[in-house]
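Folding Query — how this chain folds
Tokens — whole-number codes for backbone shape
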Amino acid sequence: MLGLFVAIIVFNLLAFKLVKHITLNEMIHIWTFTIAFQVCFDVIIELKLKGYWYFYKNKVEYIGLLPHMILVPPINVLFLNWYPFNKKLSKRMIYLGGWVIIILLYEMMTLLPRPWGYFHYGWWNFWYSIIIDPILLFILLKFYKWISALERN
């Protein structure tokens, strides 16, 4: 749990201090989309299929809302803030791959024993994350492009 609180502080400070290319309106949309999308994904994988869980198995805890509501959204904002939209496909793929590696390293840290870790695998494993994370980031990118286009019009 200590790792979660440290990560929340660090990633939120980074997001609110370093983000320069995303408007406040876009940030609010990204934050809201991230919460909704992650909750939908986790209801299926975590609660229905028991693929993984936060803190305690077979329990829905209020503290389990923290990763959904105030940890993952600022990470997504940082990812989008520095995304090389107008660069070659190869640069965008390298950027995406770099973020997948960062996310996977963080996931490995969350698997540490308490007090640092808070995440636990059921049938889910590292390889599923390697496959799913780029897809989730791609969906996030498409959402961001959509809300950016709406904001311009």
Summary: The chain has one domain: 2-152.
